[in-house]
């Protein structure tokens, strides 16, 4: 009997040891799967961000050509009146081309001259015009200016076009390369930081296109979104959480708010198109309409975050305030809301960051239009940064590829900053009850 009991005990111990090893092995496999999933996700993220950075970095630099220009009075101001309107409409592009022709006098054929003129941007005249308008005394003198190169020359100089490629397959021809090499040998070619990328609006010419108009449009749109969604969201959440009776109707409202948070954003765009544009006749492609549409989309997020922040405030705060004679409204406005404000602000910033990255609802209300001027009010035609990225991504010019990636980098920078602010607010004002 003793031997049988010993054998049974040994068998149980052996079975237990086997099961224990299997359990430990399963735990190790689970940890390995989790670690592998994290490493895979991080690798994909690294590849994605790395590819965007590699493609977008060249857009932060621009190629400039040094050109000697004679500001011919016969072209700029034939009447000699120095009228600003006349100076503004003069043919400065011809002056730039004449400067190039003077540098390469051996070029006499019309076709070659036309090709030579294409090495500078079509917007090169803006540099000369700004200088003459600023100082009309320059008319009739010879000056030297750094002129923006064309998008093809810029792309080639940055090494994105291989000169060893067959000429028929290159956008930059052999003649243009030889002219660029001659200018570079004379230190007339420079790669400078592209300040105009941050200081100008959109353009049909890739080398002149900037994000200022889209950034200002995004800012105005978010101002409208915040002005509408924040007070309405906080008031709605405070009422539902602190004052509304708990019955079937409030349950239906809560369910619908949660459902609205999961509705595709393009549905809000269709709603804005039907209500704000068709019914109320508001201006199309304006930050006012875009902000209202994004406010509708952001409201559920703010309401849900605000209710969660209000629930986190201990009931003892309410009871103490009521005990000293405060009304229900005073309890909420003087005590509960201030204590819940860090959580409310965190949810609001996250909702605004989500609104900043939206494209689909804004496409439905016409904010996909080509806008050159920087908007100054919420009723001016404008676009936003995600829509600007969408427009550039659809452009056939190769130089817009770098512009698209650079704009994505700027947008990601804004989103990361907003989420970092939300995290800092939560850490700074977080209270543990």
Top keywords for this entry?
433 residues; mainly alpha; MetI-like fold; 3 domains; three-stranded antiparallel sheet; 18 helices; 3 strands
Describe this structure in words.
The chain has about 425 residues and is mainly alpha-helical. It folds into 3 domains: about 1-55; about 60-195, no CATH class; about 210-430, MetI-like (MetI-like fold, Orthogonal Bundle). The protein is built from 18 helices and 3 strands. It has helices spanning about 1-55, 75, 85-90, 90-105, 110-115, 125-135, 150-155, 175-185, 195-200, 210-245, 250-260, 265-280, 285-310, 315-325, 330-355, 360-365, 385-395, 400-430; strands at about 60-70, 140-150, 190-195. Strands 2-1-3 form a 3-stranded antiparallel β-sheet.
Report a brief summary of the structure.
The chain is mostly helical.
Give me the secondary-structure category: mainly alpha
**DSSP summary, beta strand count:** 3
The number of distinct helices, counting runs of at least 4 residues, comes to: 18
* N/C terminus separation: 62 Å
Largest sheet: 3 strands, antiparallel
Query: Quick one: overall form?
Result: flat
CATH topology of the largest domain: MetI-like fold
CATH architecture of the largest domain: Orthogonal Bundle
Q: Which percent range fits the helix content? A: 55-70%
CATH class of the largest domain reads Mainly Alpha
Low-confidence stretches at least 5 residues in length (pLDDT < 50)?
none
CA radius of gyration is 32 Å
Strand fraction band?
A: 5-15%
Strands of the largest sheet, in order across it? 2-1-3
Q: So, the CATH homologous superfamily of the largest domain?
A: MetI-like
Element-by-element helix/strand order: HEHHHHHEHHEHHHHHHHHHH
- The count of domains is 3
The average pLDDT is 89
């Amino acid at each position: 009997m003793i031997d049988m009991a010993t054998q049974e005990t040994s068998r149980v111990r052996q079975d237990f040891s086997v099961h224990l090893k299997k359990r430990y092995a399963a735990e190790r496999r689970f940890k390995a799967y989790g670690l592998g999933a994290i490493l895979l996700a991080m690798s994909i993220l690294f590849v994605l961000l790395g590819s965007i950075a590699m493609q977008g970095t060249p857009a932060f630099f621009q190629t400039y050509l040094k050109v000697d220009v004679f500001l011919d009075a016969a072209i700029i101001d034939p009447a000699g009146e120095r009228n600003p309107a006349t100076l503004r409409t003069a043919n400065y592009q011809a002056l730039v081309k004449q400067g190039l022709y003077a540098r390469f006098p051996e070029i006499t054929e019309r076709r070659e001259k036309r090709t030579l003129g294409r090495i500078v941007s079509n917007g090169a005249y803006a540099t000369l015009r700004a200088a003459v308008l600023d100082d009309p005394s320059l008319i009739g003198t010879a000056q030297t200016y750094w002129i923006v190169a064309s998008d093809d020359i810029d792309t080639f100089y940055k090494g994105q076009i291989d000169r060893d490629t067959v000429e028929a397959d290159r956008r930059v021809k052999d003649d243009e390369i030889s002219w660029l090499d001659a200018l570079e040998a004379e230190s007339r070619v420079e790669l400078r930081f592209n300040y105009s990328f941050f200081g100008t609006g959109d353009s049909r010419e890739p080398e002149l296109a900037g994000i200022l108009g889209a950034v200002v449009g995004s800012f105005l749109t978010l101002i409208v979104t915040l002005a509408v969604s924040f007070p309405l969201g906080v008031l709605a959440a405070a009422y539902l959480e602190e004052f509304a009776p708990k019955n079937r109707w409030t349950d239906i409202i809560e369910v619908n708010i949660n459902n609205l948070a999961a509705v595709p954003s393009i549905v809000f765009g269709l709603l804005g198109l039907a209500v704000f544009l068709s019914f109320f006749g508001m201006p199309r492609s304006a930050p006012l309409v875009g902000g209202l549409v994004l406010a509708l989309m952001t409201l559920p997020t703010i309401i849900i975050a605000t209710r969660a922040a209000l629930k986190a405030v201990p009931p003892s705060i309410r009871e103490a305030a009521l005990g000293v004679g405060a009304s229900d409204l005073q309890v909420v406005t003087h005590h509960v809301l201030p204590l819940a404000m860090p959580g409310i602000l965190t949810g609001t910033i996250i909702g605004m960051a989500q609104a900043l990255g939206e494209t689909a609802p804004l496409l439905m209300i016409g904010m996909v239009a080509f806008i050159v001027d920087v908007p100054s009010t919420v009723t001016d035609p404008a676009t936003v940064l995600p829509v600007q990225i969408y427009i550039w991504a659809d452009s056939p010019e190769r130089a817009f590829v770098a512009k698209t990636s650079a704009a994505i980098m700027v947008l990601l920078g804004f989103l990361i900053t907003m989420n970092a602010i939300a995290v800092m607010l939560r850490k700074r004002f977080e209270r543990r009850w």
